[in-house]
Amino acid sequence: MINYTLRQLHYFLAVAEAGSISAAATASHISQAAMSQAMDDLERAVGAQLLVRRRARGVELTAVGTVFLHDARELMRHAEEVQGQIIERQTTLAGPLVIGCYSSLAAFWIPVICEKFTKPNPGLSVTLVEGDGAELQQQMLKGHLDVVLTHTRHLLPQVHHRTVMSGRPYVLVAANHRLAARSSVRLSELAEEDFVGLDLPTVRDNQLVNLRMSGLDPKVRWSSQSFEAVRGMVARGLGYTVLVQRPPVNVSYDGLPLAVLEIEGPVGVSDICVAYTASERPSLRLRAFLDFCEQVGAKRDAGDARGSS
Amino acid sequence: MINYTLRQLHYFLAVAEAGSISAAATASHISQAAMSQAMDDLERAVGAQLLVRRRARGVELTAVGTVFLHDARELMRHAEEVQGQIIERQTTLAGPLVIGCYSSLAAFWIPVICEKFTKPNPGLSVTLVEGDGAELQQQMLKGHLDVVLTHTRHLLPQVHHRTVMSGRPYVLVAANHRLAARSSVRLSELAEEDFVGLDLPTVRDNQLVNLRMSGLDPKVRWSSQSFEAVRGMVARGLGYTVLVQRPPVNVSYDGLPLAVLEIEGPVGVSDICVAYTASERPSLRLRAFLDFCEQVGAKRDAGDARGSS
């Protein structure tokens, strides 16, 4: 059982160097009383007198103190080395980072993460896990994941998050739809038309609620779990849809043209965020990933689809 | 327990109309002996003499036969009505049809199915289920699905299938890749480069085996469950990939250009097929769906991405 602290050793070295408690206290930016107390505590902790205190507050090392000074210097150097290695390791982003990515965001975020975050940091061991936003957060709370890239709408109450990109929904219609030439529409203008739904749990649970709160009760006539199948059905005139992610080309996988319409008036947004668990001090790699996503999101919010130029 | 057959009734009506067994046999295109036998069998079945046979092979109805003639006419009309309803119902494609669709094919097939098969046949109650190709076939064998649209490589041994579209793999690289200007490559030219894998169970299990049999052992360095994330990673120069489905636009979701290269020499194909269970007589709606997919696939094989123009 070690009873002394590294702080006490640090002060002891300062006293030995300065030759007096008052000078060491001044150099260490603490009071003389605190420095004097620290020396008393250190001597009690090691069970030996290290210093001979003189009237004029000068000090001399005892024989034991002289030997201890040597050992203390070596120990402090070692402790600094250990600390330095920690810092260096954190500066080059080493260690494991398990990133969960909500499936709907995978196509938009995984490529830029791999190219601009994983690849330039070979010391990092990044694992990407794709899945449902809420399920991934559950896994994170159990300790299996470090972070989850998802929508703010899907956040569990127990997690922390940083919003990294805005996600305002838009209306998608076929290029030959009666409203396709417009740049924006009110949701109420579509109330009588068939809706093509993206049939994923988190979308289902959130989007329809969101649309109803925005005054539209969509007539869900068609649906698919595939984002591009939804776009394809819209392109074929089976109905309109409301989506958040925006591919750069308004053409379906069938080669049919689509038109994007902004939504006029208030509508619930579904921003993109990085969720993480509370911890006293998030690791450097976690903070680096948060910063990275924030930078990509800001560039995309500014109109750069790549988020990396 | 009914012992007579509709065929016997049909012949009995013919005999009553013609007034003789020989004339009725001629009209019905069977032999006199067969007609005579049919009348004997019918009388034995109903347990009563219906006809009085005369020497010149003329016949007269008994009193019981006269009453039976009326009932038989009514029953035959009813039976024809039932038959007619069956035909009509089958001609307008009524009834349930549960279609399984392998997830990777959803974006390419669900829109055209909904527009050109489901919507024009409102009497049909079509349910589309998306999932893993092998799992969907297992569900079909348990009776939960009628058909499964999948790859020939994923077929379970117990199912029947009809191939509807060819699926020759191709190489995808970034537009600034050293080989991007070529129209085709040998797989061996890519052996030293990183591979970006589409990490779906059926792809994993089949594609790598397929590529190894074609002489390439891919160095899988990156992967995603998302088709567009794979394309995005390729567009960012992280590696090449081998895919089968061909979206019409060679641009990733990040807005980065891609290049498609055909594969020179022999390579295992992964055709698209409709799997169904063996049954003595597949329903008209099942056959209609098989024909529909075959037509769409043939048009796509001929270069029409929509498969429906």
Largest sheet of chain A, in brief, is: 5 strands, mixed
Q: What is the quaternary state of this protein?
A: homodimer
Helix content of chain A: 40-55%
Low-confidence stretches of chain A: none
The whole-number mean of residue pLDDT values of chain A reads 88
Organism (chains A, B): Glutamicibacter creatinolyticus
GO cellular component, one term (chains A, B): protein-DNA complex
Pfam families (chains A, B): HTH_1, LysR_substrate
Protein name (chains A, B): LysR family transcriptional regulator
Topology of helices and strands:
The structure is a homodimer of 309-residue chains.
Chain A: H1 6-18, H2 21-27, H3 32-46, E1 51-53, E2 59-61, H4 63-91, E3 95-102, H5 103-118, E4 124-131, H6 133-141, E5 147-151, E6 160-165, E7 170-174, E8 184-185, E9 194-198, H7 201-213, E10 219-224, H8 227-235, E11 241-243, E12 258-263, E13 272-276, H9 284-301
Parallel strand pairs in A: 3-4, 3-5, 8-12, 9-10
Antiparallel strand pairs in A: 1-2, 5-13, 6-13, 7-11, 7-12
Helix pairs in contact in A: 1-2, 1-3, 1-4, 2-3
Provide an overview of this structure.
The structure is a homodimer of 309-residue chains. Chain A is an alpha/beta fold and 309 residues long. Chain A has three domains: 6-85, Winged helix-like DNA-binding domain superfamily/Winged helix DNA-binding domain (Arc Repressor Mutant, subunit A), CATH 1.10.10; 91-166 and 271-305, Periplasmic binding protein-like II (D-Maltodextrin-Binding Protein, domain 2); 170-263, D-Maltodextrin-Binding Protein, domain 2, CATH 3.40.190. In chain A, 42% of the residues lie in helices and 21% in strands. Chain A is built from nine helices and 13 strands. A five-stranded mixed β-sheet of chain A has the order 4-3-5-13-6. Chain A is rod-shaped. The mean pLDDT of chain A is 88. Chain A binds chain B through residues 103, 106-108, 110-112, 114-115, 119, 128, 130, 222, 224-229, 231-233, 235-238, 245, 247-249, 251-256, 305-307, and chain B through 103, 106-108, 110-112, 114-115, 119, 128, 130, 222, 224-229, 231-233, 235-238, 245, 247-249, 251-256, 305-307. Chains A, B: InterPro entries: LysR_HTH_N, LysR_subst-bd, WH-like_DNA-bd_sf, WH_DNA-bd_sf. Chains A, B: Pfam families: HTH_1, LysR_substrate.
